[in-house]
């Protein structure tokens, strides 16, 4: 029997990896009786952070961030001239696309963007716009592509911070950096989350997103925790950008 070189040398039969995953679903406990999270963090303690600027050589600006088990990559291209007449504006525009990799979650994501990804892309754009000097590139747009490689929670907050560092790394003029942070409503309610985009130098909020039902007093407390955590992250972001431009600073 002749060998068919057009076929890939793979097994003729395959099984879904989900068949080998335990189906025993235990309720997720954010905080145990010792006031510790499942990953060992205390209540109010931020995730371990690793961030690197200049992760994609072909892009004008790029960054990679790890916040706990969440891993996000961002690449910035442009500014590029607007080609369509209906998109013409004397003020620059941001075009953001946030996409979850197909392997980023336990169950495979689709290649095409769903409604959740489109909504998160709009939130990302609205959060970054107040920090970018859009009048510096009229009749042009800046393309920002964010890929969530692993979703371990707080993906939007990680995307905001990562995109901000990528824009700054690309030499795009900004009024301030944007640092994202998400706070989960702690027990006994566990009803929602609050995500904030914070401008640390001018001390302003550029974006605020709340999911789930929360009492107004709890929302205010979560907002304060987000701002405080963003201030703690700011020196880390500064050092990352300084290391990325060692020969451009006096």
Automatic annotation (TrEMBL):
InterPro entries: ExoRNase_PH_dom1, ExoRNase_PH_dom2_sf, PNPase/RNase_PH_dom_sf, Ribosomal_Su5_D2-typ_SF, RNase_PH. GO terms for molecular function: RNA binding. SUPFAM superfamilies: Ribonuclease PH domain 2-like, Ribosomal protein S5 domain 2-like. Residues 45-172 form the Exoribonuclease phosphorolytic domain. The keyword Cytoplasm applies. The keyword Ubl conjugation does not apply. Keywords: Cytoplasm, Exosome, Nucleus, RNA-binding, rRNA processing. GO terms for cellular component: cytoplasmic exosome (RNase complex); nuclear exosome (RNase complex); nucleolus. Coiled coil: none annotated. Its main location: cytoplasm. Pfam families: RNase_PH (PF01138). It is found in: Cytoplasm; Nucleus. One of its GO terms (biological process) is rRNA processing. Belongs to the RNase PH family. This is Exoribonuclease phosphorolytic domain-containing protein. It comes from Paralvinella palmiformis. The lineage of its organism: Eukaryota, Metazoa, Spiralia, Lophotrochozoa, Annelida.
């Amino acid at each position: 029997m002749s060998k068919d070189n057009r076929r890939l040398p793979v097994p003729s039969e395959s099984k879904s990896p989900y068949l080998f995953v335990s189906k025993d679903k235990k309720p997720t406990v954010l905080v145990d009786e010792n006031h510790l999270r499942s990953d060992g963090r205390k209540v109010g303690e931020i995730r371990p952070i690793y961030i690197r600027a200049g992760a994609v050589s072909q892009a004008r600006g790029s960054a990679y961030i790890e916040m706990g088990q969440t891993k996000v990559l961002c690449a910035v291209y442009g500014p590029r001239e607007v080609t369509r007449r209906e998109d013409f504006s004397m003020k620059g525009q941001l075009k953001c696309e946030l996409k979850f990799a197909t392997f980023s979650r336990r169950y495979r994501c689709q290649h095409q963007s769903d409604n959740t990804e489109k909504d998160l892309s709009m939130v990302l754009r609205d959060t970054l716009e107040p920090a970018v000097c859009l009048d510096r590139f009229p009749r042009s747009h800046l393309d920002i592509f964010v890929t969530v490689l692993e979703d371990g929670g707080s993906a939007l907050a990680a995307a905001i911070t990562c995109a901000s560092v990528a824009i700054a790394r690309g030499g795009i003029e900004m009024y301030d950096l944007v640092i994202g942070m998400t706070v989960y409503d702690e027990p006994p309610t566990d009803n929602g989350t609050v995500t904030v985009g914070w401008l640390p130098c001018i001390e302003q909020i550029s974006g605020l997103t709340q999911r789930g039902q929360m009492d107004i007093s709890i929302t205010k407390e979560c907002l304060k925790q987000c701002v405080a955590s963003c201030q703690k992250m700011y020196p880390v972001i500064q050092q990352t950008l300084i290391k990325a431009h060692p020969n451009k600073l006096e």
